[in-house]
């Protein structure tokens, strides 16, 4: 009878019996049941990179890595300029979000300059060809194989010698060395390690497509994210035509970069001006609306913050979409204490337009100004933007890279800005009137006088 063990999906630790808490990393409810692997004579545990002698750090040649553009400018932005030889990228997202479509477009563009290979474990070759025809891709040099056996895939990589390879997806692969089913913790860990080893030793840039759980996290062991060089998340509502690709980890570039795509009949197309997605097209200014200049990675974005304040009952509601609800409650308390604006008997609803999620505290000032605008029923002036963090003492703190935010707002035609005093530009920004404030009371007084 096969022996059963329990493996932690977070750290890969094992236990002979089920436990609520992993004894290795302390994670709760992370042990998955599986069969114990029999010992084999083959040594599978080799280094992921070539072994080298000990050297002094200052003597190691650290030349800048060469990058090859994928033909998708927004994807290149997220990757840091393009793909890197020997780099392994993991991309995850909900089913039907467009992962395979985007990678097939990148494969077709790269096939003109390098040999490429598309390994599909979820579709047949005919299905991939049908999608390529639908997207208007020639695919004359794109090599395709439908296979889920790791050993056969490694043999194909040895034969084809591609410079760029896509594995769709890592959860469908299995190794003959293991007895567990495809998608199990052991199989995902083993297949990812073997493919990464091949990519590093052969100089092949590889993309692994990963499934996600109901909570939106990448399925499988957390060690999968540690093995690879870059982790990308594909975000967006399947009912909307816009998609966001966000870099969570990148050894070759900046993290938290985003690429914005629009889903069209001919596949995904990059959006050169993503601020237009997150701004509503109002004919006239409306109350409760304030435009925020936020920062996603190194890219400034203009996002509209909408607030609705309405009479509540005995227990008024506080609801936010795209922003932290606890921070909203804190800002309402600051607004009452330091600006004398009370919403204690009002329902307050705050929404970030376009489905974008804003995590940075620089949105505080825009949120408070949109709430006061809705409460008074008076819209903010046309072409108005704001950003800045608000503290519990009512002070308005500076936001990082304030000059870039102001230049982006001026470029898109905005004319009035309320910003923290520390972010006030030393030289006037053409076409933009900047009001610098130190406290929330000053910001509200300035807005009332506009």
Automatic annotation (TrEMBL):
Signal peptide stretch: none
Positions occupied by motif RadA KNRFG motif: 249-253
PROSITE patterns: RECA_2
Domain RecA family profile: start-end pairs: 64-212
Binding of ATP, residues: 93-100
Sorted UniProt keywords: ATP-binding, DNA damage, DNA repair, DNA-binding, Hydrolase, Metal-binding, Nucleotide-binding, Stress response, Zinc, Zinc-finger
Function: Can catalyze the hydrolysis of ATP in the presence of single-stranded DNA, the ATP-dependent uptake of single-stranded DNA by duplex DNA, and the ATP-dependent hybridization of homologous single-stranded DNAs. It interacts with LexA causing its activation and leading to its autocatalytic cleavage. DNA-dependent ATPase involved in processing of recombination intermediates, plays a role in repairing DNA breaks. Stimulates the branch migration of RecA-mediated strand transfer reactions, allowing the 3' invading strand to extend heteroduplex DNA faster. Binds ssDNA in the presence of ADP but not other nucleotides, has ATPase activity that is stimulated by ssDNA and various branched DNA structures, but inhibited by SSB. Does not have RecA's homology-searching function.
Family: Belongs to the RecA family. RadA subfamily.
Protein name: DNA repair protein RadA
Phylogenetic placement of the source organism: Bacteria, Pseudomonadati, Pseudomonadota, Betaproteobacteria, Burkholderiales
């Amino acid at each position: 009878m096969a022996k059963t063990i329990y493996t932690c999906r977070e750290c890969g630790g094992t236990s002979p019996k089920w436990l609520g808490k992993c004894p290795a990393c302390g994670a709760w409810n992370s042990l998955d049941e599986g069969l114990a692997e029999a010992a084999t004579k083959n040594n599978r545990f080799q280094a992921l990179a070539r072994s080298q002698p000990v050297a002094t750090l200052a003597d190691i040649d650290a030349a800048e890595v060469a990058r090859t553009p994928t033909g998708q400018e927004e994807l290149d932005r997220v990757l840091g300029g393009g793909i890197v030889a020997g780099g392994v990228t993991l991309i995850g997202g909900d089913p039907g979000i467009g992962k395979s479509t985007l990678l097939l477009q990148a494969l077709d563009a790269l096939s003109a300059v390098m040999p490429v290979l598309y390994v599909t474990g979820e579709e047949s070759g005919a299905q991939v060809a049908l999608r390529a025809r639908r997207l208007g891709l020639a695919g004359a040099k794109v090599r395709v194989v439908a296979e889920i056996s790791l050993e056969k895939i490694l043999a194909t990589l040895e034969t084809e010698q591609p410079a760029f390879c896509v594995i769709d997806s890592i959860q469908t692969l299995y190794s003959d060395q293991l007895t567990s089913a495809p998608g199990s913790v052991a199989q995902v860990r083993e297949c990812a390690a073997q493919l990464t080893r091949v990519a590093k030793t052969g100089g092949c840039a590889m993309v692994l497509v990963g499934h996600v759980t109901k909570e939106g996290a990448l399925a499988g062991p957390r060690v999968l994210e540690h093995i690879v060089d870059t982790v990308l998340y594909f975000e967006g509502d399947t009912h909307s035509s816009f998609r966001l690709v966000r870099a969570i980890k990148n050894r070759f570039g900046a993290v938290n970069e985003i690429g914005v795509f629009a889903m069209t009949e001919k596949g995904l197309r990059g959006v050169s001006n993503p601020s237009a997605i997150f701004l509503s097209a109002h004919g006239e200014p409306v109350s409760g609306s304030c435009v925020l200049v936020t920062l996603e990675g190194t890219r400034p974005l203009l996002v509209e913050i909408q607030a609705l304040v309405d009479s509540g009952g005995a227990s008024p509601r506080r609801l936010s979409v795209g922003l932290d609800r606890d921070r909203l409650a804190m800002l309402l308390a600051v607004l009452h204490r330091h600006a004398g604006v009370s919403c204690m008997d009002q329902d307050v609803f705050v929404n970030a337009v376009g489905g974008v999620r804003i995590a940075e505290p620089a949105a505080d000032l825009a949120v408070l100004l949109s709430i006061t605008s809705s409460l008074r029923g008076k819209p903010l002036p046309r072409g108005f933007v704001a950003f800045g963090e608000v503290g519990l003492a009512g002070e308005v703190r500076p936001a990082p890279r304030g000059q870039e935010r102001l230049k982006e707002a001026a470029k898109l035609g905005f004319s009035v800005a309320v910003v923290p005093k520390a972010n006030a530009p030393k030289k006037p920004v053409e076409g933009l009137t900047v009001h610098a404030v130190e406290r929330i009371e000053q910001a509200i007084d300035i807005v009332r006088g506009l």
